[in-house]
Design goal:
single chain, 412 residues, alpha/beta, Rossmann fold, 6-stranded parallel beta sheet, elongated, binds adenosine monophosphate
Amino acid sequence: MAKKTIADVDVKGKRVLMRVDFNVPQDDKGNITDDNRIVKALPSIQHVINNGGKLILMSHLGRPEGKDRAADARYTIKPAADRLSQLLGKPVKFASEAVGPVAEKAVAELKDGDVLMLENVRFYEAEQIKDKKAKDDPSLKAKKEEFAKQLAAFGDIYVNDAFGTCHRDNASMLTVPQQMAGKPKVVGFLVEKELQYLGEALNNPKRPFVAILGGKKVSDKIGVIEALLGKCDTVLIGGAMQYTFMLAQGKKVGGSLVEPDKVDEAKRLLQLGGSKLKLPVDVTTAAKLEAGVATQVAEGDIPDGMQGFDIGPKTVAEYKKIIAGAKTVAWNGPMGVFEVPPFDKGTNEIAQALVEATRNGAITVIGGGDSASAIEKAGLSDKVSHVSTGGGASLEFMEGKPFKAVEVLDDK
Ligand code: AMP
């Protein structure tokens, strides 16, 4: 069922506690190198400001341990608060603690239309205690709930606009809304869009529905391949995981990256998929991974001493034809080592094929992570229907796993 959004509640004069995903990449000096995640949250943020709410933002950044504040200091979320302030053209207050007296005072001082950013929620160990662990350990459960209760007390309304973390049961994602019984709990505009595109593509696809899966490991994608075989008309495989499938077919793969312990799983998927599951017919190989290195195309076996780093030209042509005939396309994972040219060719060609399919009326959805980076690198992200902000989250969504952090929110 569709979830209520921030547009369905009156925020005027209310304290709006919003979980965002400001987990932005930074350089060694802490400078933000890509503010896309902050930009994507702007519509929800501006909506609250423009409608006179008191906005309290919480997010994680990086992977601090949550035990030693001095060791975690480089993960402060202050730079994200400063960047948000620049983007909004207005001050963003910052609380150097996410809970406790400092945060409480900052929240109490908020006026209508103000914005406050709380310090990184992962500075607190309780944030990432898994419910599975907490179930068997009352002290962990109490610790997580106590932390969540303090955050929950800051809000009259809870908003989840952090799609990239929706597959997790972190305190700020799940325990906080659980603690806010009787108060409105809604999704922000970003999560609404993610659920709409990913949900519609998967549950109500216009056909033919084609999925393209690449990336490094079969092991990461067994669940999603299986789920998509049940929903799609064709599943196209690329990336390093194709070599484990080649092993399963009895082919030689030279020195290519494989997961020998997943060959049986690959055999099972090949059987399950039949003609729906398509593997590359050729592979671009090289003796080593180096920019500009001499390449050879292998059809069938990959010779000893060579490694596959990309899908080959015949595969590109075949996959492009299939994509051109599709009405819905979902893509997750690069076709080759797109970071090292010329092995970016397959990925770039597939990105281009998605752009053309979009132009011809297809719905095209790109799962986050590396395929999102690849399409951004190619400057094509605004030419497809939707680029997800969630890597792991979009994969788990495609796999059909329930998102408790979304389920807990109010239905329309
Ligand atoms: P994943 O995180 O599973 O989506 O995998 C993404 C990574 O897979 C990227 O960093 C690619 O460089 C890598 N990758 C894709 N194709 C290959 C390949 N043929 N050999 C080695 N690495 C690959």
